[in-house]
Amino acid sequence: MADYKKEIERRRTFAIISHPDAGKTTLTEKLLLYGGAIQQAGMVKGKRHMRHAVSDWMDIEKQRGISVTSSVMQFEYNNYCINILDTPGHADFSEDTYRTLMAADSAVMVIDAAKGVEKQTRKLFKVCTLRHIPIFTFINKMDRDARSPYDLTDQIEQELGIKTYAMNWPIGSGREFKGVYDRAAKKILTFTAEETANGKHQVEESASDLSDPKLSDLLGEDLLSTLKDDVELLDGAGADFSLEDVRRGKLSPVFFGSALTNFGVEPFLQEFLRMTTTPLPRKADIGEIDPMDSHFSAFVFKIQANMNKAHRDRVAFLRICSGEFDRGMEVVHMQGGRKMKLMAPQQLMAEQREIIDHAYAGDIIGVFDPGVFSIGDTLCASDKKFCFGGIPTFAPEHFARVSPKDTMKRKQFVKGMTQIAQEGAIQIFQELNGSMEEVVVGAVGQLQFEVLEYRLENEYKVDIRMENLPHEYIRWIENEGLDPKSLDLTSDTRCIQDLKGNHLLIFVSEWNITWALQHNHGLQLSEFGGAKL
Ligand code: GDP
C-alpha cells in the first residue's frame, strides 16, 4: 500500500459534543493525557461555562491561541492518529458546532449521569443524525450520584431516537461507585478512589471476572447480586450488537465512566478507536470522493479572524478529504477560480501550533486566509477539479437592522460586515434595491449581535446603530422569477434579499407563514438558503 494510504487509514477524526458542564473539556483532556499529548491534567484551558459568553468571547479574543488550540487537537495513540474537534456548548454558537460536525467522521456525546439528555444534547444530536455519522455515548460523572443506567439508556433511546448498546455497565454510583463490568470481555474493572488522586495521572485499572470469589468482598453482596441480575437481564433481553449499525449511526455504543477521576476513559478510547471509521468519503458534484484518492482535496469549515491582532489575519480551517497535503503545493480554490499556495499550514497540538509539511485525508489544518475563503469552499488539486456540496446554514431566528453611526465609515463598515459574514458568524441581507449602508443582519443567537458590535468597534473601528426587528422566521422564495412585490403578505412580513440576490421573507410568527402560503397560490418557501447536504 502506498505510504499516504497507510497514513489515511490510521486517521480517526471526531467531534465531542455535550450540553455545557457535562464534562466535555475534562474528557478531552483525559484523552490527550492517554495520547501523551499532555503530561498532566489541567493543561487544556476550557472555555469554562460560557455563562458570560460574550465576555468569554472577548477573553478568547485576547487569548486566541487558547481558543484555537482547544478547537482542534491532534495526537497519537496506539498507532492511530487522532484528530479531536472541540465544539462550543453554548446554544448561541450552535451553528459553529454544526459546521465543525461537518468536518468530523464520528461524534462522542458526553452525558452527565445525574442529568441525562439535556437541551443542547438534543440539538447537537440532531445535527449528527443529519450526516448519519457514528455516535458514541460516554455517560460521565459516575463517581457522583447518578440516575439508574436503565433510565439513562432508555432516555437516550426515547428522546433521541437511536438504539443503544451498553458496552459496559456501572456497578453502583456516587460514593458506592465500584467500577464497570465490561460486557464483551466479561470482566470487572474496579474503581479505586485513592488511586486516582483526582485523575491527575493515568490510572491503573484492575480486572477480574464475575466468578472471582474476591468480588463479594470488593463489591459487597448487594452490589454483586444486582450486577449479576443486570448482566443476565442485559444479555438476555438486550439487542444484539451490530458494528454495521454503529457505523451507519443507527446504534450508539454506551460507556459509563468518570472523566474527572479518569475511570473508564482508556477502555472507552480503545473501544471507540476500534469501532469508529477511517476518514469517510464526501459528496461532491462529480460524485463521491474517496479519501484514498491520490488527488488532494479539502473544504473550509471554519474561519477564525484575527489570530494575531497586529496582522489582522484570518485562519481558515480545512478538513482534508482526500489524498495528501504537502507544504508549498499548489491548489485550486474552486469558488475563487484561481490557483494558490496555501500559506503557513499549521496543525494544532494541545498547547502549540506547529507548521506542518504533510497532512492527510482526515486531518484538519489551519491555513492563512488572505480574505478569500468562505465557509464551505473547496480546495483541490489542479488536475482533478470538483466542488464539495456546500454547508447549509442554520435559519437565523433573530434579526436586526444595522448601519454605521458615522456615514464616513461606510467602507470599513462594509468590509467588516462582509468579513464577519464570510466567517459565518452572522448572515447579511439587504432591503430590496437596498444598499450596503444599511443591512438586515440575521443571527442564530442573540449573543452574536453583541459579538458583532464588539468586533466592528474593535477590529474595524466602526460604531454601529442596531435596531432589533420582531421577526423570528426566515424563508427563501423558491419560485424562480417571482416578483416579490406581487405577493399578498401581512403588513409585518418583510421581503429582503441575500447577497446573491435571492429573495426571502421574514415573518414574526409561524401563523404569518401559513397566511402567506394560503394567500399566494403556488408560492414555494424553503428554510435553507445554503447548498443541500
Ligand atoms: P464541559 O462544559 O462539558 O466542557 O464540562 P467540563 O469538562 O468543564 O466539566 C464541568 C464540571 O464538571 C467541572 O467542574 C469538572 O471538574 C466536573 N466534572 C467533569 N467530569 C466529571 C466527573 O467525571 N466527575 C465529577 N464528579 N465531576 C466531573
TrEMBL record:
Organism name: Caproicibacterium lactatifermentans
Annotated positions binding GTP: 18-25, 86-90, 140-143
UniProt name for this protein: Peptide chain release factor 3
Pfam families named among the record's database cross-references: EF-G_D2 (PF22042), GTP_EFTU (PF00009), RF3_C (PF16658)
Family membership noted in the UniProt record: Belongs to the TRAFAC class translation factor GTPase superfamily. Classic translation factor GTPase family. PrfC subfamily.
Keywords: Cytoplasm, GTP-binding, Nucleotide-binding, Protein biosynthesis
Protein's job: Increases the formation of ribosomal termination complexes and stimulates activities of RF-1 and RF-2. It binds guanine nucleotides and has strong preference for UGA stop codons. It may interact directly with the ribosome. The stimulation of RF-1 and RF-2 is significantly reduced by GTP and GDP, but not by GMP.
Annotated ranges, domain Tr-type G: 9-280
Coiled-coil residue spans: none
The organism's taxonomic lineage, starting at the top: Bacteria, Bacillati, Bacillota, Clostridia, Eubacteriales
Compartment annotation: Cytoplasm
CDD domains registered for this protein in UniProt: RF3
Gene symbol of the encoding locus: prfC
HAMAP family associated with the record: Rel_fac_3 (MF_00072)
Source superkingdom: Bacteria
InterPro entries on file: EF-G-like_DII, EFG_III/V, G_TR_CS, P-loop_NTPase, PrfC, RF3_C, RF3_dom_3_sf, RF3_GTP-bd
